[in-house]
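pasting for the record
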Amino acid sequence: MNVRPEDEFIHHDYPRGTTDAWKENWYFNFIDRKNKAWGINHISLERHKQKAHFRAFHVVDDEILMYANQIPLDDNLRELNDGKLSIEFVEPHKTFRLTLHGPNHSLDLMYSARFDVFNYATKKRKQPGGDKKSLAINHYEQALTAEGHLEKDGVSRPISCFGHRDHSWGFRNESNIAGWNWVAAQFPERTINISQVRVAGRRDMNRGFISEKQGNTGIRSVKVISTERNEQKAPQSSVYEAVDEKARVWTLTSRRFSGLFLPLREKGTDLAVHENFSDFSLSETGETGVGIDEYLENLA
């Protein structure tokens, strides 16, 4: 199954009148160590609640800057734009523009494809679940470059760095999820994306991909070898081992240099995400890179 150009946009073929969790999410990040700015941008359409959420969490000069808005959702919403945060698909699969006019800063980024889209819905990598109580979603991701500028306190700075995007839609009931690790690490010659989702009463879901100039290769298995934590028990560093579909082994070590702590009250009072902006090293090649090291954890 290929990702169609029209799949980039808002899907209106959702089940009408559903009370089960049906969501469509878009995610874009950027990490510019040189210019001391990094962050995540997220838009979520909750069809079962008829609500659209627009969120941006950025760190600029070590200061956390946030934007969050919720608007009513119906079929009249045709563009990902709430008047402040917007995503434009300039050329599907190739070029994207993200703008934010927040209360304390603004951002204007042009994203370009680094590698091809990786689609999880292939013959070898069928979507998990398949019923309304699972993560029965369509899902693809892509490594990017980001170029543009960010303005804060009347001063503009350039942004030039790697980025990453994620788009999913479908039934997304996360009530049974016990936790997850998600890594999107950008290296000069490749992108390594791995995830392990732990669901109560089911085997762990291990997924991901390697993007290189030769193409994409799916991940067959993921192990979390170790995790270091600080005195507050927040994760600071992890070692991961992944095996891809070509039987290549990849050993990643993350080291947090900045991060966000995001309580997920809508998913459960004790759930939270540690969104770690991290430096990465790859044992097999000696490469170093940068990316996201994300942990969903139950803090109870």
